[in-house]
Amino acid sequence: MSVAETIARRVAPQLADGEVANLGIGIPTLVADHLPPGRAVVLQTENGMLGVGPTPTGAAVDPNLVNAGKLPVSELAGASYFSSSASFAMIRGGHVDVAVLGALQVDERGRIANWSVPGRPILGVGGAMDLLVGARRVIVATTHLTKAGEPKLVRACSFPLSAERRVDLVVTEHATFAVDDVDGLTLIELADGTSFEWLCEHTAADFAVARALRRAGA
Amino acid sequence: MSVAETIARRVAPQLADGEVANLGIGIPTLVADHLPPGRAVVLQTENGMLGVGPTPTGAAVDPNLVNAGKLPVSELAGASYFSSSASFAMIRGGHVDVAVLGALQVDERGRIANWSVPGRPILGVGGAMDLLVGARRVIVATTHLTKAGEPKLVRACSFPLSAERRVDLVVTEHATFAVDDVDGLTLIELADGTSFEWLCEHTAADFAVARALRRAGA
Amino acid sequence: MPARSSKTLTASAAAALVARGTTVMVGGFGLVGKPLTLVDALLGNDDAHELTVISNNLGEPGRGLGALLCEGRIRKAVGSFFTSNPDAVAAHAAGELEVELLPQGTLAEAIRAGGAGIGAFYVRTAVGTRLADGRELREIDGVPHLLQHALRADVALVRAARADALGNLVYDKTARNFNPDMASAARTVIAEVDEIVEVGALAPGEVVTPHLFVDHLVLAGVAA
Amino acid sequence: MPARSSKTLTASAAAALVARGTTVMVGGFGLVGKPLTLVDALLGNDDAHELTVISNNLGEPGRGLGALLCEGRIRKAVGSFFTSNPDAVAAHAAGELEVELLPQGTLAEAIRAGGAGIGAFYVRTAVGTRLADGRELREIDGVPHLLQHALRADVALVRAARADALGNLVYDKTARNFNPDMASAARTVIAEVDEIVEVGALAPGEVVTPHLFVDHLVLAGVAA
Description:
The complex is a heterotetramer, with two copies of chain A and two copies of chain C. Chain A is an alpha/beta fold. Helices cover 16% and strands 28% of the residues of chain A.
């Protein structure tokens, strides 16, 4: 299993039965494939659809039926389509239960940077900021380290923040952190094969440790 | 022919082929029955419909199909239904060509009062103000005098104004006035059987007289 | 065969969700598209008093919201046209009914804004009229506009034609009116419908209110 | 048999309505729901230069709006995501393309506001971020919001699945996206469609864009 899939598999159980979820581009999109059997999570995509189904194959691919990553998807029974303004009205208005987003950095208060890189022109933002202010709950799904091997969980983001609002949960291939206003990040789960020492060394943000720290299979 | 129908018949030719019109409650609603044959005016009603058809009879009456006066209407081919917010988005956004409205008073700049009476509590406004700011053209269809025999065209409205925006045309059973920003009211048509002297006596607003003043059959 | 939905409630169970002193949106334009089964069920909820009602009208004397008004359960009404019910005029004159009057388009837009996470907006309607008294005025591109805050409610009672078992809604003709806007703008949304159909029976391109807005479904005309 | 409509134009006649220095909205999310026939026809309009384009993206290199960009016809772009086209990044770096970046939801809402006669609105999105730089901040019910003005255009190019002869539009699946919003927010609205059907062939409850918004219809894939 790839690292991306490992992360997606660790996020999936966090989505409750009947919830409406918006899955961001990249690793978050993979979460749909790892939902526990029988768990009915309804997927919203901000380009204007509720009731997104699995990736189609062959002749079932419809160029007019894509997700926010512009990848082909299918339509489940009970789906609906709507305009961009209606889709973001839904998102901003608090009608989406949970958003799963990627991140470039997470600060120790649980705020994220996921849209812009210092030194490069600001030419893209998409729907991430809307989801961060509007979704009732936000889960970050990210690799623990950047491609260059730097920690993504940092004291303060050096990249521009995507919102003032903190996220609720941060899931990497090595660990899961709950986030609250008092303690910031709290380690609640450590992956099998990851030592606490390794984690401390590769996490630049301060974090608390839950009394009931769990071990989880990768 | 009743006075109301006389007025409606004088308004009808002012609606051009292909225009989208919103007809207010009362006399304005009657305009639909007097459109010249072959003139395709599309009627919008602010409770959420485009393509309003004539009053149905008998079994064709549908309690879920009414105009803004809550009177039964019918559906023409090419009609559409939409929510109240979408309907007023249409109106305010300048997508309705012409509104025909009633008036309690019209001032000499062509501004109207049509929603509230001094001394009575303000408990109803409906969609009149929205139509006055949003319709590209506004035509007033009103009796020349109040039921008490007082002129409705006055120097300044003693009733509260419905908008700062002036209307474009004022049609009564006795006369038609064009309105512009420079001259205010200009008499352009006088009904057969109405003398200029009678009109001056029963019009409290100053008005100009068009060089090409027309006589029109009642 | 009608479909079963986990969102289905009886009218009285739905009415019980309206607590004393809360704000309730009620769809409809006059009695057209009004959730009359739900409104009537409110009369049986002894806790439904001191309500703020957001609705274009207040029904007719003794009918719809007019019946609630007769029983003195409405403390404040927010809407655009209350003069059609003489009881509302009398209650206001007697100091028993507070009224907030908005142009109909501003009312509809404020409800939509409430559901869309828009805090407030600027609109030209009512500038220079008595409805502008006490309101913030601002020029935008040289044109005066009034500030209007979004409206939200604790509970919305809406009327639709059909729901599927998930709660997707479609409306009938001009009975649509304020219902889709209100279905987006309350913490708890209850839809009164003629019929509940199987999931998949509504075409995805025709759904007007997607199911994520709808908490409960009640069958119209079934009082229990 | 396809229906005839008095609103029908050829793609080149429609493209000729875009004048030098004007603002053009272009529907679509990436290339999905993009009016590609109309965009391609713009290349044949020698007056279509110095344009301000309001569109979520700027196409792909050499495709859709990307082709217009390659020819240096776009002076300014207003949208939410231009990084998907490296040519846009390069044009911006070279000082040849001005960019106004908005969160996607704020972009869509500003377009809707432009069509709805709303002057401006307050939104929480982007508060505290670099996209808030220089923007007016205001607390509403204790929560900071940013002011966003409405967006309008001279011409909107939208993509729909079907029109009836009056110009009523319906869309296909996620090809709907920005198209209905843009169809409301421009002085001249041109819809590229796969098919024009008889008046009455679209169910009144399913029409997404009523015909009063639509000025001209162009058949997709017909270049002349």
